[in-house]
Amino acid sequence: SPAFPTEKTYKAIACNRPFIVISTPEFLKEFRQMGYKTFHPYINEIYDTLENQDDRMKAIVDEINRISKLPQDEYTSLIAECEKIAEHNMRVLKQAQEDFILQPEFEWMEDILIENWRTPQL
Questions:
Q1: CB-CB contact of 31 with 1 (8 Å)
Q2: CA dist., res. 24 & res. 111, Å (int)
Q3: Model-level pTM?
Q4: CA nearest 28: which of 60, 58, 54?
Q5: 8 Å CB contact between 45 and 67
Q6: How does pLDDT run across 17-67, given as a tens digit for each residue?
Q7: What is the rounded CA–CA span in Å between residue 48 and residue 57?
Q8: Residue 9 in contact with residue 17, Cβ under 8 Å?
Q9: Which one of 7, 55, 98, 111 is separated from 22 by 20 to 30 angstroms, measured CA to CA?
Q10: What is the DSSP string of the chain?
């Protein structure tokens, strides 16, 4: 499955930040099927549909350049809209943590996981 979020994706979610994912094609499509939202139309996510990795990277770089050149008021508006989506993603992540069921062969890890996952890290 292309949608295999790593700690880098979850870190952006946990920090309430918008993100662009450098991954396999259709990652974002499957990520949305997991209940998360992505940042379209504020971030052009056409890169997610591109099969060729060079084309995908060029589209990502082009989008980063576009965003970095926005006038301050447009950039501020983009960030504000993305923060609403980021808050939704944080709620989905928290719910996933609450719903997490440890497989029986890993029950010995439960205390460690509870301490590290369910306690806010400051």
A1: no
A2: 34
A3: 0.74
A4: 60
A5: no
A6: 999 999 899 999 989 998 999 999 999 999 999 999 999 999 999 999 999
A7: 10
A8: no
A9: 98
A10: ------HHHHHHHHTT------SSTTHHHHHHHTT----TTTS--GGGG--SHHHHHHHHHHHHHHHHTS-HHHHHHHHHHHHHHHHHHHHHHHHHHHH----GGGGGGHHHHHHHHSSPP-
Tallying the residues shown for the chain, one arrives at 122
Residue keyed to tokens 């549909």: 49
Place of tokens 């508006």: 77
Q: Which amino acid is at 85?
A: I
List the structure tokens of 12: 């952006």
Q: Supply 89's token pair.
A: 């993603």
